[in-house]
Amino acid sequence: MALDQYQEEEEEGGMSFLDHLEALRWHLLRSVSAILIFTVIAFLAKSIVFGIIILGPSKIDFFTYRWLCQLSDYVGVPALCIDELPFTIQSRQMTGQFSMHMTSSLMVGFIVAFPYVFWEVWKFISPGLYDKERNAARGAVFFVSLLFFLGASFGYFILAPLSINFLANYQLDPSILNEFDITSYVSTLTMLVMASAIMFQLPVVVYFLAMSGIVTSGMLRSYRRHAIVVILILAAVITPPDVISQILIAMPILVLYEAGIQIAKRLEKKRAIKEAEDDVDDAL
Question: What tens digit of pLDDT does each residue of 206-262 get?
């Protein structure tokens, strides 16, 4: 919300700057409360959250591994089937399991509460927007939440299992056993899931940038090659050092980038139609 809008509201008898800070405090308190509630629920449901969800990609009966084996039988490519994960998970610190239980519960609590948290943020931001901007951003909570869960699901069901499989089978020498610490495992899983969830927000970012006139479809098309290089570098940074994982995270981002071009193009068409109608009204 711009400072001049705050001043205009104060002059018109609306909320003062301190009132906005008070409102922000309550939005943050409600958001944190929602996260804590779901965190406590996740903490109490240890057997489900940790035993099934968090440790799921580390077990050979995980959905993705079973699906890949079915796919390998269908296409006749045995290499696709992942039927072994040669690693064990250990806790080498006295507080390791408890701290990871807390961390995992907090992460699950945030993911589940994300739509409500974003809704609280949007409730605070939207009154500072003009009617035109508010109407243009209608449905923002739904689409942001949808893309967030799609990205998190992609990271959990696709990116994480394949990355874990690669890292579990990677050996410098057969005498070196892969015995991962629980902290390392949870951190890697969290990074992959959250990175995917954030990356899937690209169309939303492009939408608001195009709506404000900062980017255009022509600009996005002209920088497509540069974007591909940046996306590949970014995929290499946020994924384990294997080509498959990098391609897997890069491909949907490239698709989302192309979707962003179409979004910007559609906004430009709407803006052109609106300007033409305004010109006709002015002429009359």
Answer: 888 888 778 888 888 888 888 888 888 877 776 655 566 677 778 888 888 898 889
* The overall pTM is greater than 0.85: no
Token code pair at residue 277 = 């109608």
Answer yes or no: are the C-beta atoms of 92 and 181 closer than 8 Å: yes
Q: What angle do CA 276, 281, 284 make, to 5 degrees?
A: 130
* Contact by Cβ (8 Å): 202, 123: no
Instruction: Please spell the DSSP secondary structure of 246-266, one letter per residue.
Output: HHHHHHHHHHHHHHHHHHHHH
In sequence order, the 6+-apart residues with CB closer than 8 A to the CB of 230 are none
- The mean pLDDT value of the chain amounts to 84
Q: How many CB atoms lie within 10 A of CB 133?
A: 13
CA distance 117 to 121: 6
Name the β-bridge partners of 90. Answer: 181
The three-point CA angle 60-109-188 to 5° equals 45
- Say which residues have a Cβ less than 8 Å from residue 210's Cβ, sequence separation at least 6: 216, 217, 260, 263, 264, 267, 268
Residue 284 pLDDT level (bands cut at 50, 70, 90): low
Residue 148 is predicted with a pLDDT of 95
Q: How far apart are CA 122 and CA 141, in angstroms?
A: 7
Chain centroid offset of residue 38 CA: 19
pLDDT at 11 over 50: no
Other beta carbons within 10 angstroms of residue 124's beta carbon come to 16
Inter-residue long-range contacts of 40-43, CB under 8 Å, 24+ positions, other chains counted: 40/105, 40/109, 41/109, 42/104, 42/105, 42/108, 42/109, 42/112, 43/101, 43/102, 43/105
Which residues 6+ apart lie within 8 Å of 63 measured at CB? 56, 157
